[in-house]
Amino acid sequence: MAIPRVKSTYSLDLETVQALDDLARRWGVPKSEALRRVIRAAAAGEGVGGPLAALDALQASARVSRAKAEAWVRGVRTEREASSRKARR
């Protein structure tokens, strides 16, 4: 059974078009499908959760394991403590 389609024309800025091209390429789908997915996700409330949701998405995209992240935090803490001790001398 054919899925009904409606052709529409929209004006997008260059940055948005490039982002759409990147998404489509990354997902391996046509731009129309990428646009449909993004619209459906936004309509469902996904990906529009504000700054914390953006931070979560950024961290997830880095693909850093919890162990590596915790090791990084320990290293930074150690450096800061060492720096504070030097500053107090």
Textual characterization of the structure:
The protein is an all-alpha fold and 89 residues long. The chain has a domain at 13-48. The chain has 4 helices and no strands. It has helices at residues 14-27, 31-43, 51-62, 66-88. It is elongated and about 75 Å long. The model has no long low-confidence stretch (mean pLDDT 86).
Report how far the terminal alpha carbons are from each other.
Answer: 78 Å
Largest sheet: none
- Taking pLDDT < 50 over at least 5 consecutive residues as the criterion, the unreliable ranges are none
Taking Cα atoms only, what radius of gyration do you get, to the nearest Å?
Answer: 21 Å
Mean pLDDT: 86
Structural classification: mainly alpha
Overall geometric form: elongated
How many strands in all?
0
SSE string, helices as H and strands as E: HHHH
- Percent helix range: 55-70%
The proportion of residues in beta strands is under 5%
Helix count equals: 4
Secondary structure: elements and pairs:
Elements: H1 14-27, H2 31-43, H3 51-62, H4 66-88
Which descriptors would you attach to this protein?
single chain; 89 residues; mainly alpha; 4 helices
